[in-house]
Amino acid sequence: MPLTTTTAAPLFWTSYGPRGAPRLLVLHGGPGASHDYLLPQMLELADRYQLVFYDQRGSGQSRTTDQAPVTWRTHVDDLARLVPELGLEPLSLIGYSWGGLLALLYAIEAYRGTGPRPARMVVIDPAPISRPLRDSFEAEFARRQASDTVAKLREQLAASGLRERDPQAYRQRAFELSVAGYFGTAERARALTPFRVIARIQKSVWSSLGDYDLRNGLTTVQCPTLVIHGRLDPIPLESSEEAARALLNARLVVLDESGHVPYVEAPDALFAAIRRFLDETASLASPSSSPPEAT
């Protein structure tokens, strides 16, 4: 199992795609989830790129017995060490959800001199960039989960007999309904790889951010950035709009028919937008060295 050696705690990592191809470091969501719930859909990009994933500290295969709080700075510091260890410079970042916010936090700190600066970034439905916007998201997600639509879908599942006929399919559907509020409509909550969020990590990271607001910090980030946001995401579109305005070299793409999970809800539009951006910025990200083999 490949583990980092330069981070304060060993982190599991893996890669997919042609060796020698331009490398993209993918940051998963949560905080407290793991990389594998982005699979298999994100492997759409592994035809022309080598995708590098890792499980952030305290989650997935990077679990630790250390009970010290894991904070946003913990994750930023880990990332600053992981990038040179895996030979990922010039750095191309793709962050989804919390991973999108982590990419932005990392970029702010990198432009302050604390780690290798990103050459380019894609942030997909990033977590809210301020505490008030996070409060708005939490209220909207709770409203959706308590909706009549979700309640009816739960009733249909309970009455279906699926629990007895196919327990695995029942667990899959129950998981989908537990996150249905993230989708543009609850009926679209399908084909999402189940994941587990480590509550201790999630609470610790969000607590460390306090009454945060990234807008001023983002004005120092100069690398080309693509911000993608589903119009039907419970995270307010305003958050990504403000991020794109604050960044010095950013473009915002809004996916009209998608919620928070565009790699499931609108994959064609999502990957077309990412590929255009990567093609346009290809000169910034030619491989400079060979990464170690994932074994």
Describe the 3D structure:
The protein has helices spanning 72-85, 98-110, 131-145, 148-159, 162-165, 167-178, 199-209, 215-218, 237-246, 262-265, 267-280, and strands at 13-16, 23-27, 50-54, 91-96, 118-124, 225-230, 250-255. The protein is α/β, with parallel strands linked by helices. It folds into 2 domains: 13-134 and 196-284, Alpha/Beta hydrolase fold, catalytic domain (Rossmann fold); 136-188, no CATH class. Helix 1 packs across helix 2 and helix 4 runs antiparallel to helix 6. The chain is globular and about 55 Å long. The mean pLDDT is 94.
Brief sketch in words of this structure:
Helices cover 38% and strands 13% of the residues. It has helices at residues 72-85, 98-110, 131-145, 148-159, 162-165, 167-178, 199-209, 215-218, 237-246, 262-265, 267-280, and strands at residues 13-16, 23-27, 50-54, 91-96, 118-124, 225-230, 250-255.
